[in-house]
Specification:
This protein is α+β, with helices and mostly antiparallel strands and about 600 residues long. Helix content is about 25%, strand content about 35%. It has 14 helices and 31 strands. The strands form six sheets. It has an eight-stranded antiparallel sheet with strand order 11-10-16-7-8-15-12-13. Strands 2-3-1-4-5-6 form a six-stranded mixed sheet, sandwiched between helices. α12 crosses α14.
Length: about 600
């Protein structure tokens, strides 16, 4: 066991985690050069297209150290985006140490700090690594000062690397072996293994990713999941080396996988403890904190007969993405679907794309909303995230919405632009301090509803890409929320309803009406698209009618002949408007979403 090291790479977005993983994989020769590709651990198409890591991935690297011993290094590459912090916390639970990567030109950023605190919560040994030293804008001395002042780590222990050029990779591996502690645990004790991830294989069932803290597991053992007492016989155990490599057994300290023909997807839960049926351990391990979704949206299949497929796809995706939650939902306009909770808008987009690509589904999503607390007149409390459940406003005594504490790090020259952005979003500036002579840490308290749509993109724009952002939920505060209904031809469309702050309602209603006007095809009669709060119409756009030229066959003669035909057409259109149904195309629902996230 003293020749095993379990560590993870943590950092802010784009500081080079996946590239460093590539170099570590190349130097340990676990994959042939002809099979190698950049960002090899980013196995999903969507990760490669967007250039971000979404899923933490595990790989076991055999390394011949300078002391002549062979070490097995279990590396877990993690995402950097704030929406996927839950992936990072799960990865850290199965490690003893972490490499904290810092960009030599950007320095310490918001997620660098957030990930450092996560690692400290798990009592991990931390090695600072300064990456991208080959860049012309690299300022190593400035970054060392930041490591000392902002992070409280010893800057002299920082390893200088360029993952792109392959510099300093040997030093990283040596530091991992020398500075990180080996795992502890007794291989002869009863089995105690923590599930930190899993995914579904159509041929083998659920493949469970585990970190073993005590005991040994081999093929043929009967294992028990401690949360629900489900029992399975182990078919195969092994380690990850890009592909799955079967082993005879896995002992304490190892990170690997178990295949046991698990067909019931819901039996497997991240954070659960696995033990052996004949020799169970005394108590389960403390699992992970439950992820708390902050953005909610309803997902419906385009064709109503796709409901069963959507249900099966969500079950399988939940295995691989424990932060997503879902429950059944229904809509008059769209039929049966699911109300899903996400950790942020990027998370929502990623889940939507994965469902469409991996499971070949066509989906419609409703406008995202956050969770509100309503205090009713009789003193009871109601928590809602779905506009369809919004009660009669006369019964509501008070409404509270979630607030976050946002930490924004920017160069000093962008202070005014960031201030304006946050104050426009109903934020209050609670504190700011200079980290160095030209870098600021600004702390704002903002309503979450103002952040989930396009705040992050706008922040990147106004700071020319230099601003970094991290947030945590703090509490619920009083607010003035109204339900915005969209009426098409006088009928409410429940899937387009939104909960929104009263000050923003008119602007959002106009936006939505304009988008719908461009998307809904013209009919033989006028269509009114209206935004309403209760009985008050606050915005309106009209789609003009298609008009058949009924006077084409009248050439010459008295004007009254033409007038008679036009009057007849007018009456027909009036009658048509009373009975006409407006079909809303799928693109119209999607356009309403895009109006908020562009």
């Amino acid at each position: 066991m003293k020749h095993i090291r379990n560590f993870s790479i943590i950092a802010h977005i784009d500081h080079g985690k996946s590239t460093l993983s590539d170099r570590l994989i190349q130097i340990t020769d676990i994959i042939a050069d002809r099979e190698f590709q950049d960002q090899i651990l980013d196995s999903m198409d969507i990760e490669r297209e967007r250039g971000i890591t979404i899923k933490s991935q595990t790989v076991c690297l055999p390394y011949n150290a300078q002391d002549g011993q062979t070490y097995y290094l279990n590396l877990i590459d993690t995402p950097g985006h704030v929406d996927f912090t839950y992936e990072v916390s799960r990865a850290l639970a199965s490690c003893e140490g972490a490499l904290l990567l810092i960009d030599a030109s950007q320095g310490v950023e918001a997620q660098t700090l957030a990930n450092l605190y996560l690692a400290m919560e798990h009592d991990l040994e931390i090695i600072p690594v300064i990456n991208k030293i080959d860049l012309p804008s690299a300022d190593i001395e400035r970054v060392k000062v930041q490591i000392d002042e902002d992070l409280g780590l010893d800057p002299d222990t920082a390893i200088l690397t360029s993952a792109k050029e392959g510099e300093g990779i040997e030093e990283v591996l040596e530091a991992t072996v020398q500075q990180l502690p080996p795992p502890e645990g007794n291989p002869d004790a009863p089995l105690k293994a923590l599930i930190f991830d899993s995914h579904y294989d159509p041929y083998r069932g659920t493949i469970v990713h585990i970190r073993i803290f005590q005991g040994t597991v081999s093929a043929g053992d009967t294992i028990v999941f401690m949360s629900n007492s489900a029992q399975y016989r182990v078919e195969e155990v092994g380690i990850f080396q890009i592909t799955r490599v079967p082993q005879k057994s896995l002992a304490a300290g190892r990170v690997g996988y178990v295949i046991a023909g698990i067909k019931t997807v819901s039996d497997t839960r991240c954070g659960d403890t696995i033990t052996i049926k004949d020799r169970p351990c005394d108590a389960p391990m403390s699992g992970f904190k439950e992820a708390k979704p902050v953005v909610f949206s309803s997902v419906y299949p385009v064709a109503s007969d796709g409901y069963e497929e959507l249900a099966a796809a969500l079950e399988k995706l939940k295995l691989n993405d424990a932060a997503m939650i879902f429950e059944k939902d229904t809509s008059v306009a769209l039929g049966f679907g699911f109300r899903c909770g996400f950790l942020g808008l990027l998370h929502l987009e990623v889940v939507q794309e994965r469902l469409e690509r991996e499971y070949n589904l066509s989906l419609i999503l409703t406008a995202p909303s956050v969770r509100y607390k309503l205090i009713m007149n009789d003193g009871s409390e109601l928590v809602i995230d779905n506009p369809a459940l919004y009660p009669d406003p006369t019964r509501i005594a008070a409404t509270k919405e979630p607030f976050i504490r946002a930490t924004i790090m920017v160069p000093e020259r962008y202070m005014g632009a960031v201030m304006k952005l946050c104050l426009d979003r109903r934020g209050t500036n609670t504190n700011y301090q200079y980290l160095t002579s030209d870098r600021l840490e600004m702390i704002f308290e903002l309503p979450l509803a103002e952040v989930v749509f396009d705040f992050y993109d706008t922040l990147k724009s106004v700071t020319q890409g230099y601003g970094s952002f991290d947030y945590e939920l703090i509490d619920f505060r009083d607010t003035d929320v109204v339900k915005l209904d969209i009426l098409i031809n006088g009928e409410r469309v429940d899937a387009l309803s939104q909960l929104i702050h009263r000050d923003r309602a008119v602007e959002r209603a106009r936006n939505t009406c304009e988008k719908l006007r461009d998307e809904i095809p013209r009919q033989m009669f006028k269509i009114a698209i209206q935004g309403a709060i209760g009985g008050n119409i606050i915005a309106r756009k009209t789609i003009s009618a298609l008009r058949k030229d009924v006077t084409a066959k009248c050439y010459g003669g008295d004007i009254t002949r033409k007038r008679k035909l036009l009057e007849k057409q007018k009456k027909g259109k009036k009658r048509m408007k009373m009975v006409g149904q407006v079909m809303i195309p799928q693109s119209a629902f999607l356009s309403v979403l895009k109006s908020d996230t562009k």
